[in-house]
Amino acid sequence: MKIALAQLDMGFENPPFAQNRCMEMMAEAAKQQADCIVFPEMTLTGFTMLPEQFGEQKENSPTVAFFRTEAIRHQLAVVFGVIFLENGAATNHSIVLDQNGNLLADYAKIHPFSYGAEAKHYIGGNKLAFCQLNDVSLSPFVCYDLRFPEIFQVASRHSHILTVIANWPAARAAHWKILLQARAIENQCFIIGVNRSGSDRTLTYSGDSMLVSPTGEILAQLTTPNALAVVEIHPEEAEAYRKEFPLKADRKEALYYSFFQSHLE
User: Fold this and answer.
1) What's the pLDDT tens digit per position in 20-42?
2) What percent of the chain stands above pLDDT 70?
3) Is the alpha carbon torsion for 115, 120, 126, 127 positive or negative?
4) What is the mean pLDDT of residues 215-239?
5) pLDDT at 265 > cutoff 70
6) For position 263, what pLDDT does the model report?
7) Residue 105 contacts residue 67 (beta carbons within 8 Å)
8) Could you tell me the CA-to-CA distances from 181 to 107, 111, 189, 238 in Å, in that order?
C-alpha cells in the first residue's frame, strides 16, 4: 500500500485557498500511484475557534463533497479533517473516504485541546472508529489525542494503521515526534502523523509529518511547507512483528483497569 503524507500550509480560515492546494497535492499523489493521501487536521480552515462560522452539517457537508469529488477523480482514498456542527455543538472530525468516495470512517476528536481553548468551542467525541482500507484495518485520530495512549491501545487491537492528523505547533514539535514513535512502538503498528505547516494568526507550525513503522523506524519525515511524500508500506509486517515479539499478550488490562478504579475513588 502506498501512503501519501500531505504536509499542507492551508493558510487560515480560507477554504477556497486550501482547496486549490489540496487538489494539487491529490493530483501529484495520484501521479505517484498512491493508494491513500492523508491531510492535516481541519484541512480547509486551519485550527479555527469559529465553528459557528466554519462548521458544517454532516449530512450536507461541502468539505466532504469536495473531497469525495477529488477522491473519485483521482481514484485515491483520502483522510482529512472537518468541523461538524449539530444543534449548536461543534465537533472536530477525521474522515476517511475510499477511492470511490464512500465514507469508511468518521471519528470525532475525543480530547479537545483545553490548553489552546479548543474545549471552549468544541465538545469531545466518545467513540473510536475502525475501517477497512484496501483490506487493511485503520483507525483515525486527531492531534491532541496523541497524548492519551489508552485509546491507541484499544484501537490497535483491531487496526494495523493509525492515522493522526494535526495542527501541532512548532513550540512542541519535539513532543510530536517522540510521541508518534512511542505510539508506534508500544502498539506495534504503523503510525501516520500528518501535521500542517506555515502559520495562522498566533502560531507557527514546523510540520514534521512522519510515517513510523511498528518497530519505531521513521520511514518518512517532512520539514518543508506543502511537502508530499509517498511511501510504500506492507501492513502485514505489523501482524508478523506482533507474532515475533508478542508484547500485547503480556498486557494486564484488567489489572490496569483496577488501578484506575481504585485510585479514582
Assistant:
1) 999 999 999 999 999 999 999 99
2) 100
3) negative
4) 96
5) no
6) 84
7) no
8) 22, 20, 10, 14
For cell 503498528, the residue is 189
Q: How many CB atoms lie within 10 A of CB 242?
A: 18
Q: For residues 158 and 156, give the distance between their C-alpha atoms in angstroms, rounded to a whole number.
A: 5
Cβ atoms of 185 and 216 closer than 8 Å: yes
- Whether residue 135 has pLDDT greater than 90: yes
pLDDT tens, residue by residue, 82-117: 999 999 999 999 999 999 999 999 999 999 999 999
